[in-house]
Amino acid sequence: MSDEAIMNDDAAVVTCEELEKTYSQGPQLVHVLKGVNLQVRRGERIAIVGSSGSGKTTLLNLLGGLDLPTSGTVSIAGKDLAKVDETERGLLRNKHLGFVYQFHHLLGEFTALENVCMPLLIAGMSMVDAAERARSILGRVGLAARVEHKPSELSGGERQRVAIARALVAEPSCVLLDEPTGNLDRNTATEIHALMNELNATLQISFIVVTHDEVLASSMQRRLLLADGLLREQ
Asked: Does the pLDDT of residue 17 top 90, yes or no?
């Protein structure tokens, strides 16, 4: 499948088939994932829920190409991540995926604008063009007046909005979010929920959200439970 095929409404953005992940703990093997299958289509909003330690973050890292499975396949833009080298995996992540974490992971010495520019600069875009696009997406998330502020000068909700803008600035096919509202108060979390839904509707970017937040999970189109190493619809 070509990269262009992923823009087709019926094309899968991210897929995994019979995904397994096993870790060694001393002499014992821990089977975290035991044959997970998932297909994410353009514009879908998916919540993955489950108890602590069930493997949700492990699954998200595999879907994002940050780790490789013990067996099974993960494909982005139709390319099996296990069959490309680390350089190409990085290029695929940069082009097709965005990441948002519970802790925003912004670079404290840089402004909001500079933080959001980073994925574009890594992709080879000029600073002038990157800054123009970064200003636009920061405006979309309600931070037009805060672009020159550093993370320490922003509220928790504002820092998470910057992290979302950074994940969206390269116009990825899919954004992976790991507990994106875990450190936010309920009012701020509700604002982030609404922002995600709005951006999904207007930009047709897929969202895969790992969360313990029942309100956020309920706002997604699909809700999947990860338990006993298997993923199933709820």
From this structure: yes
Residues 6+ apart with CB under 8 A from 211: 47, 48, 49, 177, 179, 180, 181, 182, 217
Q: Do residues 200 and 140 lie in contact, with contact meaning Cβ atoms separated by under 8 Å?
A: no
CATH of the domain at 118: 3.40.50.300
Q: Which of 100, 96, 128, 67 is nearest to 195 (CA)?
A: 100
Is pTM beyond 0.85? Reply is no
Give pLDDT tens digits for 29-42.
Answer: 888 999 999 999 98
What is the average per-residue pLDDT within 63-70? 89
Q: Domain count of the chain?
A: 1
Residue 58 structural domain: 3-233
Ramachandran sector of residue 130 (left: φ over 0; alpha: ψ -120 to 50; beta: rest):
alpha
